[in-house]
Amino acid sequence: MKPFCLLLCLWLPGVAVWAAPAPLLPPLVIAEQFVAPAGWATMKSYLCCEVASQAKRQTLGQQIPPRVQRACQLVRQDSATAVVAVELRDSLSRRDFYLHFHREADGWKLSAIRNLAMTHLGPPMVALLAAMPPAEVADYNRKHPDASHAFTIGNLRLWTSADADIAAHFYQHRAAFQEMLSRVQKGRFFHPGIAADEATDEQAANADPAVHALLRQLYLGHVTRRATSCGSCLAFVIGGKIDSTVGLLYQPEPALLPAMQPDGLIVLRPLGDGWYLYKTT
Quick one: pLDDT band at residue 1, thresholds 50, 70, 90? Predict the structure, then answer.
């Protein structure tokens, strides 16, 4: 019996080494497993890069309170990369994250997790502005003729809104968005292929009285072509801090859309008829 036991002990480690590899999973299924409340025994087989060093023992889902609802949506997938949007929702708030994947020889790997940065600054600013008495509001409006008290509150709320709420704002005011787009296009403010005049073009577009009025009506900061490194796109920026911005992008030709990537355009969600919700970091 002793030789047999010794042979068994020597053989067992080999079983672990030659165990069947983890099954190949598509990005959406990996995302759903990674944000689920339960643990995931084979998690590390589907992680790489920065996420592999961040998620050493727990999935993202295990670090989120169980009461929070999770919804995953595939935004885009091609032969090499994919992006899945994740909405976290409870009775008080909604938050959005974006999981970036790339394909390796042994299958899809979750490589980066992104979200819009510094949105925590918005609610305290809204609370401060909303608490102003009428006299202070009037004084604020005198000091800020280009961005009134009402506009600033609306803009801050939209900037920190969930993707679903920004999309709802777009659909509710779709006619005004189309009118604004038409005025920018008819004004011929932006000259294709002349990068040196970008700042001048942008200034002229935003200074146009009709365009400016619609931007303020829709709680938008400004229109530009530089927000997403897409010279053929029009970006109507809601707001943000430094390079972490959110807004609505217009590009009717899908082939000309900029690529999503963890260190630039973190999400581009279609809204229809050439319109997209975008975020950068």
Answer: very low
